[in-house]
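ok trying again, last paste got cut off:
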Amino acid sequence: MQTWLANRSTGLLGDRARENAKALAALPPMEWRARVEHVQVMCAANTIAMVLLVGIVILQVRLFRPQSDTSQREEAPGAPT
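nice, full thing came through this time. structure:
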């Protein structure tokens, strides 16, 4: 796929893509242990990213909830303040 993209890109980005495709083709295949380590690193990075996203969503919900409660009180007729 990298070769396909490199062949269809132009300019500086295309040049860099072609250089990287040649360098990638020159590398020997990864050994089993290296593949396992690569997958472990990718899984750890994905886990960290998901924890951060969930934390951001929780903070956004906490910020939104008091605003919605306040607006409901203001709209209700005869509600005690």
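cool. The two ends are 63 Å apart (CA to CA). The helical segments are 2-8, 11-26, 32-75.
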